[in-house]
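Run folding on both entries below.
>entry_1
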Amino acid sequence: MPQLFDPYSIKSITLRNRIGVSPMCQYSSENGHATDWHLVHLGTRASGGAGLVMMEATAVTPEGRITPKDNGLYLDTHVSKLKQITTFIKTQGSTPGIQLAHAGRKGSREVPWVGDSPVELNQGGWQIVGASAVPFGDGYQTPHPLNPKEITEIVVAFKNAAKRALESGFEFLEIHAAHGYLLHSFLSPISNHRTDNYGGSFANRIRFLLEVIESVKTVWPSHLPLAVRLSCTDWVESGWNLNDSIFLSIELKKLGVDLIDCSSGAIAPNIKIPVKKHFQVPFAEEIKKKADIATAAVGLITEPKAANNLIYKEQADMVLLARELLRNPYWPIQAAQYLNRVNPGLIPSQYLRGF
């Protein structure tokens, strides 16, 4: 049976273990350009032993950013720094990945530690967009509903960003269709009140995402992994649910998607979510079994033995860690020590005396 520190092959890529750094916004870019913060932040997690190191949600258009400090891949000039980052990640034995995203109706906000308030147009903000003219919540701007021409332009933007991701040296690509951002806002009936070909029925609501995948596949090589992050449930009866995610995952697999990154929630504020350890693992398990596609589990996975067990029990193919790796970038090395699975090369030579 597979275990946490077994290598994991997906397409032509073999990860040294089944631990991934979940995409986490750092709000430290300049006009969409990554900085030395990203080099050190991601490089440290690579030297800490993770098999997959994922760049944060990276906007495919300027208006696709959550904040003015978000990372971007909508300009050719964004590529140079990212190349430096991916090159270093690879020297540490990790695989570099990136998540492409569009913030939709949750965009044009201040960075969280400033207050997460709207950035107005006269202060460097922008017109936010969405499936329908439904604000995310109190204190959020009303989004402009995208028309079909604008939807097509964003589909092309995802394709162009994927091409730049390849030029930047990334070997694992994830499309962000979760957490209330643009693609998720089309999936969920809570935020999608459209009456055209992109609203109403399940087939219509998933159309935008499928078009993005089809477009990205024209530039992203077939031998490299392609993943999609889903909010597997909105946690409300009238919203997107696990069965929807299973049926969508079946369609995504038909288009050549290799893995579903199983998260949940964030379609609207103030929704009660039963947060506890491993609370999203059942989504990864169900989708893996019923859609016959690889999955990654994420959410309050912090203990080495428990993480190993969920891989051993085939509840997921990978675990993605987020806040735990902010607290401790060397969690993978320490977990390998705990499980007696320290493979040659996992610990950088420069750090051997510390372990």
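>entry_2
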Amino acid sequence: MITLEKVKDAARALKPIISNTDILPMPIKCDNQIFLKTENLQITGSFKIRGASYKISKLSPEERAKGVIACSAGNHAQGVALAAQKNNIPALICLPEGAPISKIEATRSYGAQIMLVKGVYDDAYQKALELQKEHGYTFIHPFDDDDVIAGQGTISLEILEEMPDLDAIVVPIGGGGLISGVAFAAKQIKPSIKVYGVQASNASSMYNSIKEDRAIKLASVNTLADGIAVKQPGDLTFDYTKHYVDEIFTVNEAEIYTAILTLIEKKKMVAEGAGAVALAAAMFNKLPLTNKKVCCVISGGNIDVNRLSRVITQGLLNTGRRAMITIQLKDTPGQLSEAIQCVAKLGANVISAQHERLAANGDIDTCYLKLELETRNFEHIQSIKATLHGNGFSIIV
């Protein structure tokens, strides 16, 4: 078991390495006053550098000489790679082959050897264990290790030093290392504080495990929040979570997309899927609190830029900021122009328009207009559809 003194020791060891990331107010409409602990702006773009660096700082000379091995969906990989580089220790990182290219290349840039493993995090984990036994490396576990957990717990020291009147901390959960450290340290400093965990509903291993009071392994995980796509929680982290975390909630993919978009628009800040789940829970009022000061840990910002535009588009659709409307037209002169004018008069911006003259049912007098619109909200979309209908147009979708 870790102690508060161990967490404080980690803070001293990490002081020359990490940033004490800012805590920023988040101006959104919800039941509570929201603040952000911006670990997405941490060195390597994630909180993972904390636990990895503290663990590596505790290695013996013999362990350092043999080198370290780790497995990761990407962020822990970067933390281990950078910490090993700073200590002149060789590092081998096993990553799932589906990890974002940006995370793979960032890990490689810190000097680590990379091995891509078919499957998800758990498959990379098994491969790393095999290689560790074969070569005598020290395995740097991404979450189920007391030194790693203590390193992550330094986040609570920073939060409560700056905000001693805080009512709750909301934390993403994958394997559980982050919330174990944050919850343990926070409860030692301020026993009355609430600590809530958040998982993606498509990767809810800890949520299910706490609910069933036993560690449960999921058959599969599939979520934008790849950094917390873990099939099974650790033994240590399950116990810490059970004893120190007040409640766990889940958020769906649409809510994650919306939280990422909101961070971009409101704070000009990029978060990855895993980094946005805590804010998503607060935004959609999952927390059993009202009018309280709540700090959401934005755990990482290493989203694949190739996916970001799709995430933004989906976020816009989910919030009524973009709409896809298909209109059935008579194939007569002026119909297309009239439909477009109806949309324009209501203040919607046409992003794209596709006119199809061949109807699926073979009606040669019918055609279809597919519009992609920039809109204000869902009420605006309904107003556009009602106006089109009132002008004699049939809305297909």
